Amino acid sequence: MNFKIKKINESTIKLLDTTPEIDLELSEAYTYKIPNFAAMRKNARYKNWNGKVNLYNRTTKSLDYGHWFDLYTNFTKQRGYDIELDESLIPDKKLDKEELVKIIDEHIQPRNDSGDLIVPYDYQIDAIHHAIDTDRSVILSATSSGKSLIIYCLCWLYINCILEDYDGYITIIVPDKGLVEQMYSDFHTYSNGESDNWCQKLNSDYSKIITKKVVISTFQTMIKMDDLIDETSVMIVDEVHRSKAKQLKTILQLAKQAKYKHGLTGTLDGVEANETLIKGLFGNVVRFVTQRELIDSGRACDVVVNIIGLRYPKDLVDQYNEEWEFSKQTSPHIDKYQFEVDFINNCKERNDMLLDIVEMAEGNSFVLFNRVESHGLKLYEQYKEKHPDSTYLITGDIKNRKDVLDTFKKDSNSVLFATSSIMSTGVSVNNLHNLFFATSQKAKVATLQSIGRLMRLHDSKSVANVYDIVDIIGKNNVTQKHVDERIKHYESEQIKYTVTIVDI
């Protein structure tokens, strides 16, 4: 039994000559279940839905482009099918690795802040070569491994070696405006200013007129640029684990002329549904370097996670239990995790101890929180009263984030209070010595990427410290359980950790 895979455009493939039996197998193979479906079922709108998303459309017999390779190599072989492949799907060989290295050495010649030549690491060369060679890729490379250099080299190669003159734009999509500025600045540094001639920033602060070959934008701005999407030949997405965002997914599917699509990230969340979606948009995932490999090779600073369990006294435990019972009676649908976070955020004794631990840490520190008004601002203001000249704050309302970070970088023993999202969006502070998780979380990406930012090399540190604060309120409270998930993440990346219990 055989069927055909036909390329419709750069976003979609179509299957021809399938039977109803094959269609059913395809539908089952390319179906995933929404991970938070149990919570969604509480909404009446979803009561008749089974929580499954079918990627294969049995009516149009279509599938996201990125699945073709898996379909061709795995699906058909596992079932013994013969398949006829549209030759336009097969990437052309462009550069062998030796030729690539020569081009980087003789022509690209990236430079650092001091103007010295950068010699890319082996894993960066491998990632660049893989992307160029496959046309579609998901590059998994640990946080602090130099992904912006990989992106810069890809852009140079597409402009000078692969694309025809005026053959569409190269668009780079990053999560927020701060990263637009950072990526543009990195390109300026790598090229000794020459990238200003062929690269431009695009967000709400800049003109929407496209005058350069390479455009760096947020997906929030990009979604409004229909002509740019239509005329993009190369689309590169940094922090690609965010592709589950509806707007970003839409952009990628609308980019029907973008023959080359690449996504980069330091960490994927391990959720099958999300990884299946990313593969469909970009292609297969390939890991090039882990955090542990970076550390062991001397290319990143070692990290120790200090798990500090704050054990609450009996009076606070009793108060917690009483308030929880009262909340359940007055608000039957109350979420226990949200209740617990509220209790913790408003516990003066807990927050006093947290700030005492922050004060004892040597070097520059980040203190990360999730809720601004009810927690982060209170911590910041309390600490600033005692340390007015060395305490900083970054939230979504802070417009001059770059200026704050630049000032912080010049210090040697300061504390910056910030929302957790700052560490998941490419912030670069080399002389960062300590990281405090002031709010419980279990998300793999947020946890590991935050730690990855701490690993950047600097003369002032040999080992960086993470302080993972765990609230022990009686037995098996919700936030206490989260640490079990974080420990799994630490162990998966071979990150050292210790556990200490202290009484509040």
CATH architecture of the largest domain: 3-Layer(aba) Sandwich
Amino-to-carboxy terminus distance: 69 Å
What share of the residues does DSSP label as strand, in percent?
15-25%
Shape: globular
Number of strands: 20
Poorly predicted spans:
none
Number of domains: 3
Helix content class: 40-55%
Q: Determine the mean pLDDT.
A: 91
CATH topology of the largest domain: Rossmann fold
Structure class? alpha/beta
The neighbouring-strand order within the major sheet is 9-10-8-11-12-7-13
Q: Determine the CATH superfamily of the largest domain.
A: P-loop containing nucleotide triphosphate hydrolases
Name of the level-1 CATH class of the largest domain: Alpha Beta
Over all CA atoms, what is the radius of gyration?
25 Å
SSE order and pairing:
Layout: E1 2-7, E2 12-16, H1 20-29, E3 31-33, H2 37-40, E4 52-54, E5 62-64, H3 68-79, E6 82-85, H4 97-108, H5 122-134, E7 136-141, H6 147-162, E8 169-174, H7 177-190, E9 199-202, E10 214-218, H8 219-222, H9 226-230, E11 232-238, H10 246-254, E12 260-265, H11 272-282, E13 285-289, H12 291-296, E14 302-311, H13 314-330, H14 336-345, H15 348-360, E15 365-369, H16 372-386, E16 391-394, H17 401-409, E17 415-419, E18 434-437, H18 444-454, E19 463-472, H19 478-492, E20 496-503
